[in-house]
Amino acid sequence: MPLTPDQISEIESARATPRHTLRAVSEGMEAHLYRAHEVLDHGFVRVIDYMGDDGAIVQAARVSYGAGTKAARDDAGLIRYLMRHWHSTPFEMCEVKLHVKLPIFVARQWIRHRTANVNEYSARYSIMDREFYIPAPEQLAAQSQVNNQGRGAVLDGPEAARVLEILKTDAARSYDHYEEMLSQEGKQGLARELARMNLPANIYTQWYWKTDLHNLFHFLRLRADRHAQYEIRVYAETIARIVADWVPAAYGAFEDYRMGGATLSAKGLDCLRRMLAGEAVTQENSGMSKGEWREFEQLIAGN
Amino acid sequence: MPLTPDQISEIESARATPRHTLRAVSEGMEAHLYRAHEVLDHGFVRVIDYMGDDGAIVQAARVSYGAGTKAARDDAGLIRYLMRHWHSTPFEMCEVKLHVKLPIFVARQWIRHRTANVNEYSARYSIMDREFYIPAPEQLAAQSQVNNQGRGAVLDGPEAARVLEILKTDAARSYDHYEEMLSQEGKQGLARELARMNLPANIYTQWYWKTDLHNLFHFLRLRADRHAQYEIRVYAETIARIVADWVPAAYGAFEDYRMGGATLSAKGLDCLRRMLAGEAVTQENSGMSKGEWREFEQLIAGN
Amino acid sequence: MPLTPDQISEIESARATPRHTLRAVSEGMEAHLYRAHEVLDHGFVRVIDYMGDDGAIVQAARVSYGAGTKAARDDAGLIRYLMRHWHSTPFEMCEVKLHVKLPIFVARQWIRHRTANVNEYSARYSIMDREFYIPAPEQLAAQSQVNNQGRGAVLDGPEAARVLEILKTDAARSYDHYEEMLSQEGKQGLARELARMNLPANIYTQWYWKTDLHNLFHFLRLRADRHAQYEIRVYAETIARIVADWVPAAYGAFEDYRMGGATLSAKGLDCLRRMLAGEAVTQENSGMSKGEWREFEQLIAGN
Amino acid sequence: MPLTPDQISEIESARATPRHTLRAVSEGMEAHLYRAHEVLDHGFVRVIDYMGDDGAIVQAARVSYGAGTKAARDDAGLIRYLMRHWHSTPFEMCEVKLHVKLPIFVARQWIRHRTANVNEYSARYSIMDREFYIPAPEQLAAQSQVNNQGRGAVLDGPEAARVLEILKTDAARSYDHYEEMLSQEGKQGLARELARMNLPANIYTQWYWKTDLHNLFHFLRLRADRHAQYEIRVYAETIARIVADWVPAAYGAFEDYRMGGATLSAKGLDCLRRMLAGEAVTQENSGMSKGEWREFEQLIAGN
């Protein structure tokens, strides 16, 4: 369980005291505020704050004096238009701030998204908690034989058991040694900024992470994708469900045009037109490489 | 007067309906929401939305589960520490969204601050309003004789009158011609995206502009500075007063360390230490150029 | 003609003195260095500097010790793969610096691309040149009747003549008045930072603009698109031809996957699969709005 | 030794073939190209490419047609002026691309500088090398008693020996286990993207890192500072020496105004003026907190 009773009590206390505001309010998002959505074995995603709602996107696109339009239906139509034509700035007018607890190897992928604000728990200043990500058995996958950066089948019994044993004992030992090096009982105690180097990449860290809706959609498109590593994908999927409650119209457009959509090359478009005209198009007469053709076939077959 | 009765009524209606929220609320900022702070002859600054307060800075710096500390005094001390030591990320955790009406030549300086989100009124899509910035007589300054990008004394009578006449008649004529070119009465009507090129740089535009508190402070430091052009400085000063109400502790630290503070070079520090030790330091033995020495003297004299 | 004899002589002198370097060199780009590619009536694009070539993209993607692969063909294949799968960071490893002369209303669109470095000629510090963009007759288009931000047919005789007359005389008068306000003959002379506000948006400015290849591709995709305003599109097209000489493999991939490609929504993909399976799909049973269906039909028809 | 004979031979081969270019060339930087500057026990910094020199800063600041001024002395004066008055965009016109090998805990600090381009060696795709940072004995420091994120005295004999033993054996064991989990001899072999989670933060990674001179100076100011952690500071110091050879005038200005300079608060300036006027200023009558006063005293004492 990721939260201590003290932390739960802090969250409850923050949720107990609604206040008045004149700002745009998203009821769907208010329901999420401060609550911890559990991810992996010790991680979570918590919404700390947000700015804007679907109406704020329309309001900014129109540079209007009041709120969005009266009719929610018109707003949704405009939002779909903006998404379809790659307008990015109106979506940047919504902002969200999350508190995330995540393994360091996930944090290292996540931080590559540069258009965001981050405050991470400091292992120079503070002592890390004894919490490590240990994959569930069904996530213990072999190296893919066809994709250098993918997973294959789930590991079999003895091999799986050995991997779990290694991960657990190495994590425990490295943390024991971390504590021993830090300890000042009868000795000086190594500096925190040095002792942390012994800790493996599956230890949990946490941060406050803030970004705008446009950049969040970009993050979700890459990280909720089936090619993303499972351990970051579950965070992205959790956030996606929250966003669907926050800005339902924008999320609907995002799902249709980005998550569920696809990009075709000029060659792909040409093949498609020939196929619709009844021509038998093959890799040989497509102008595509074998790899591209395979991806193209999968796309039009829908798998 | 910058606002029409319709616009005022939209603002009043937005202010009339407080709602509940669990988010951090800044009472000082709620009082500003949606109201138009008048700037120059037709411009304004309106707060459309905000995220966070002083406590949110502390909360992010500590990556904490609850809100900031109980004691506002401790928060202020930590905020001063963060500002003094150039910590930027906790200040990035607050965000503000403004609706600004401003002359195009001011907008062209403003947009140079790239870490911000902008939706500008489109002159490709819409027709510009007939509103131009005409300087007040006391702002009609001569070219500075000592500073290539500064102002000297206020212009004298006939010259001032002639300048005002030029600005007013050219603005009126260019707008008449803009309307004539657009007009479709008995003719085709020039495309809006072309007709706008006839409009001078003192016509007003408007935009939604959103940025975080760290980048806003950077904007204020450069644009509320006495070397900034008057016409952008008055916008910066208006925003500064709003920020003082929004995050009083952070603004206090900003005023002390950034606006009121100064940076000394290694040479400047060396001279200062020699002066404090009783030595008579002059430009000749300072190691500085004449220009640097003049700026150094002004700094320690406090003018 | 955009360049004075002095400027041409500076350019010739810069081109006359090749030096040795150990850096990656793109012969295609060396041929462009410093030369002015004329755009519109007084504008230009000049390459001032560049970093990297096709090999540099591969080298960075592989984090390799030496240069790219031996075989240019392998490089091109990898570059196509990176483009197809939206890898952006290897393309960020190439950089280009341009000197551009352009009308202010074009500059105002251009500057919206924030991930770039800009030094613009300062009208606070310096005096602007008397150069204005006056559209060629075939560019004098009417407002589109179907697209609020587009152009329709070219204007007819008397209306066209009147528009050109307005643009020319207003430009000339505003510049005469600009000079008169600045003049210090027998008077003080208005500050440059104020006088400039009388100049219309078709006056030319110039800047140094530097960006990386990934962001440049994004710029080209939006600005060389047929929906972009003609006056910025000609700059984008000029730059596109330069990029094709600089990094031919990357440009080829960009043309196929971005410029010539298209994005389909989930609904669009679904319709396509049904059509390929022989079903008669219409707007009514497509799940799309009329506007979306029209765009979808154009896409698969290839016009 | 960080480089294999193959890598050294690739570097030698890249250095053996100078080519002609018309671009700005910095002779000081050409001497560094591709060479590995060793840092820590297995790390390095290598210059892969650069754009611009001191003249390019001046050229951009003036938006000029040719190169910088004729006189290097004038260039240096202008560069000092630009640095003193916080002009950032001319410095952004120079760019550098580095290949860096560094421990992961250092990479995690480094990546916080967001305005940069990065391609990191992928542990999803590839297998990490068996190279770990083990501090030299004189860097094995105790936790500071006064600064939560600093180091105190060097550790004594038995404690130091025990720390080194832990770091070495844990690194070796974790890597042995990493290889065992990956191994496909007689079993499936765990996916690389999972196996890497067992590796500690002192394992070396490598990346291509590209940034502009303005942002590089910001990086150096924070990371070559005496408050920075030693392990990143040595990288910053290595880069600083390279930059001094690349753009000597800009680096000189940076040293004087940023590295050697200091920022005083409004309160600090006020105290200083009172001290220069002969007043005895103490913490009590300074208006500063004890912490601020201590820092102020250190600043004016020069230690």
UniProtKB/TrEMBL annotation, chains A, B, C, D:
PROSITE patterns: THYX (PS51331). Binds 4 FAD per tetramer. Each FAD binding site is formed by three monomers. The keyword Transferase applies. Its EC number is 2.1.1.148. One of its GO terms (biological process) is methylation. Keywords: FAD, Flavoprotein, Methyltransferase, NADP, Nucleotide biosynthesis, Transferase. The active site is at R223. FAD binds at T89, R112, H113, R114, E120, D212, L213, H214, H218. One of its GO terms (molecular function) is thymidylate synthase (FAD) activity. Pathway: Pyrimidine metabolism; dTTP biosynthesis. InterPro entries: Thymidylate_synthase_ThyX, Thymidylate_synthase_ThyX_sf. Its cofactor is FAD. Coiled coil: none annotated. It catalyses: dUMP + (6R)-5,10-methylene-5,6,7,8-tetrahydrofolate + NADPH + H(+) = dTMP + (6S)-5,6,7,8-tetrahydrofolate + NADP(+). DUMP binds at Q109, W110, I111, R112, E120, Y121, S122, A123, R124, R196, R223. Catalyzes the reductive methylation of 2'-deoxyuridine-5'-monophosphate (dUMP) to 2'-deoxythymidine-5'-monophosphate (dTMP) while utilizing 5,10-methylenetetrahydrofolate (mTHF) as the methyl donor, and NADPH and FADH(2) as the reductant. Homotetramer. HAMAP family: ThyX. Belongs to the thymidylate synthase ThyX family. This is Flavin-dependent thymidylate synthase.
